[in-house]
Amino acid sequence: MSRAVGTWGEAQAAAYLRAHGYTLLAHSYRCRFGEIDLIACKGNLLCMVEVKLRTNLTCGLPREYVTSGKQERLKKTAAFYLAEHEYDCPVRFDVAEVYSDAARSYARIEYWENAFGG
User: Fold this and answer.
1) CA 40 vs CA 1, 26, 56, 78, 92: distances in Å
2) Measuring CA to CA, how many Å separate 13 from each of 27, 60, 96?
3) Which among 26, 55, 69, 109 could disulfide-bond with 16, CB atoms 3.0 to 4.6 Å apart, if both were Cys?
4) 63 — phi, psi (to 5°)?
């Protein structure tokens, strides 16, 4: 999948979050530990969101690709973000599954709150 396609999926997930009352704080946050696709907040809760885009399910569900190794990288990256921005608030790790066709003529979002522990 190209970076442009991934960026499109992340934009769809960001629009979903905004429509559900979240405030977006960062997109494609990177540090030496890894990358977090979207960082959003709702109330005093900070949400680290991994976005997975799929056009079919032949290789399994998108959330199944957030492996334990990926989860550890996300946790380290989140800890760095929290320290860098001096946040002291609850954190949740979510997964946004974006389903579309190859032409990206539609997007359907399945949003998994608290997809794994922090």
Assistant:
1) 24, 7, 27, 12, 10
2) 11, 20, 6
3) 109
4) -65, -20
- What residues contact 64, with CB distance under 8 A and at least 6 apart? none
> What is this structure's pTM?
0.91
Show the domains of the chain with their CATH numbers.
Answer: 3-60+86-116 (3.40.1350.10)
Residue 23 in tokens: 């405030």
Residue with tokens 């190794």: 69
State phi, psi for 83 to the nearest 5 degrees. Answer: -70, -45
Tokens of 12: 């769809």
Distance CA 107, CA 79 (A): 31
Nearest to 82 by CA among 19, 116, 49, 39: 39
Whole-angstrom distance, CA of residue 73 vs CA of residue 39: 15
Residue type, 50: E
pLDDT at 74 over 80: yes
Q: What amino acid occupies position 76?
A: K
